[in-house]
Amino acid sequence: MMLRPQRVLFPLSSNAATTFTRRSFFNLADTIRNASIKRYNERKILNFTQQQVYEVVANVDDYHHFIPFCNHSRVYSTIPNGQDKHMMQAELGIGFKLFEEKYMSTVTCHQPHKVQAVSSDASLFKELVTTWQFHPHTSNSCRVDFDISFEFASPLHAQASNVFFDQVSQMMMKAFIDRCHQVYASKSPLL
């Protein structure tokens, strides 16, 4: 239940009144938390099939070869979960100048429709969810929806992310597009 701020009048003297605003602590805490969560989304039409783009995004082991600031990527386990679905436990390392961290994620793949990674490492992130969705567009193209939301556990990391978050998020999409070109030897431009 969400409480709205209430205005309360308190008499200060016989002929004056002051207005105070009361706000629920829980609403204030939610407002502060939501302000620290970073979100980015992007939609593109690519001249690659849904399956091709899915395969590049689902190949977590190769991320360190092409994603900016990713210096380590390793899948520790893969668990099939149905005919077109599997889950992975993966570790990623990110680094930028003096900042370097590793974290674990649970990656769920729904071939060829979706790849979602959720950080399971609470020491670095309070929240990190990356979602890629792939939709057929034409016979040789697909629509890609990329969404990322995160909140660092450390105020220092959160402050640093304010400077580079949007730029790095855009670089990620470009890195995956470039990787598709590299893997499939196609020089097709974006539609």
Which descriptors apply to this entry?
single chain; 191 residues; alpha+beta; Alpha-D-Glucose-1,6-Bisphosphate, Chain A, domain 4; two-stranded antiparallel ribbon; 4 helices; globular; COQ10_START; START-like_dom_sf; COQ10-like; ubiquinone binding; Coenzyme Q-binding protein COQ10 START domain-containing protein
What's the short version?
The protein is 29% helix and 48% strand. The protein is α+β, with helices and mostly antiparallel strands and 191 residues long.
Q: Could you please describe the fold and organization of this structure?
A:
By secondary structure, the chain is of the alpha+beta class. It has one domain: START domain (Alpha-D-Glucose-1,6-Bisphosphate, Chain A, domain 4). It is 29% helix and 48% strand. It contains 4 helices and 9 strands, in the order ββαβααββββββα. The chain has helices spanning 25-36, 50-58, 63-66, 155-184, and strands at residues 6-13, 16-22, 38-46, 70-80, 85-96, 99-110, 114-119, 125-138, 141-152. The chain has a 7-stranded antiparallel beta sheet. α2 crosses α4. The longest helix has 30 residues, at 155-184. The radius of gyration is 22 Å and the shape is globular. Mean pLDDT is 80; it is low at 1-34. One of its GO terms (cellular component) is mitochondrion. Belongs to the COQ10 family. This is Coenzyme Q-binding protein COQ10 START domain-containing protein. Residues 48-176 form the Coenzyme Q-binding protein COQ10 START domain. One of its GO terms (biological process) is cellular respiration.
